Amino acid sequence: MIDIHTHVLNNIRNDDGPRDINRSRLMLQKAAEDGVKTIVATPHMLTPIEGRKEEIMEAISLLNQAEIELIPGSEIFADDAVLKSDENLITLGDSNYLLIEFPRAELPGYVDEIFFELQTKGYECIFAHPERNGSVVSDPNLLIDIIHAGVLTQINAGSILGRYGKESKKTAQILLEHNMVHFIASDMHSDKNRYYSLKEAVDEASKYTENALDLVTTNPETILNKEYLEPGDPREYKKRGFWFFKF
Ligand SMILES: [Fe+2]
């Protein structure tokens, strides 16, 4: 398996990953035991940071991992200053894919323009954990136009397993059932409470989609091989009743 969203590096400015290198090693060990072969380290990029790529590369080389392939990346907050700073647009590995996160409560009105501008610069975009965003929880169909515009989505293993609450879990199920998910990733932050098994999440996800395993194998492999991943055709979610909104 390949995990494209993690906070496994320590001593990275603005990130909230492990507090020392031994904890980083423990996280990688747990991932390896789970069957993960490749991890993309994606520290938060909340504001422009000079020398960020070098900082990430140094942390990776200090870990000196043999068991797991560790690749540089970034989780880029959809902030104007960051998005306008080319040096800070760190892609996943050598691909041209960017992992983008939005404010948790609701999607900003300019979300389409953000993706369009990045695509115009030659990037492809991955929307990080939309199932945890208030706007998407209220209306999962918001993702249809976004995916039609060529954007891919990544949901968290913990959401599928219910670790972020009922709303994220239900939304993750809906997205999986309606062909609106391209990757599952751990988004792990520590060796303890925020590490969630990818394998267990894939098993659970397979109740809702036939291609659950692709979301941690062939799909991430395709983009890390610098190939284009077709976003596919999302299906509209039809609300079955008012009870869903009672959570
Ligand atoms: Fe993250």
| CATH level-1 class | Alpha Beta
The SSE order reads EHEEHEEHEHEHHEHHEHH
Q: Which small-molecule species are bound to the chains here?
A: fe (ii) ion
Tally of helical runs: 10
First-to-last CA distance = 33 Å
Roughly what percent helix? 25-40%
The CATH homologous superfamily is named Metal-dependent hydrolases
Give the mean pLDDT: 93
Named CATH topology:
TIM Barrel
Q: Total domains, how many?
A: 1
The largest pleated sheet is described as:
6 strands, parallel
| Gyration radius, rounded | 17 Å
Alpha-beta content class: alpha/beta
Unreliable parts: none
Describe this structure in words.
There is one protein chain. With 247 residues, the chain is an alpha/beta fold. It has a single domain, classed as Alpha-Beta Barrel (TIM Barrel), CATH 3.20.20. 34% of the residues lie in helices and 15% in strands. The strands form two sheets. Strands 3-5-6-7-8-9 form a six-stranded parallel sheet, with helices on both faces. A three-stranded parallel sheet has the order 1-2-4. The two termini are 33 Å apart. Bound molecules: fe (ii) ion.
Short description:
The chain has 247 residues and is an alpha/beta fold.
SSE blueprint:
Elements: E1 2-6, H1 21-34, E2 38-41, E3 44-45, H2 52-63, E4 69-72, E5 75-77, H3 80-83, E6 97-101, H4 111-120, E7 124-128, H5 134-138, H6 142-148, E8 152-156, H7 157-160, H8 166-177, E9 183-185, H9 198-205, H10 218-224
Parallel strand pairs: 1-2, 2-4, 3-5, 5-6, 6-7, 7-8, 8-9
Bound molecules: fe (ii) ion.
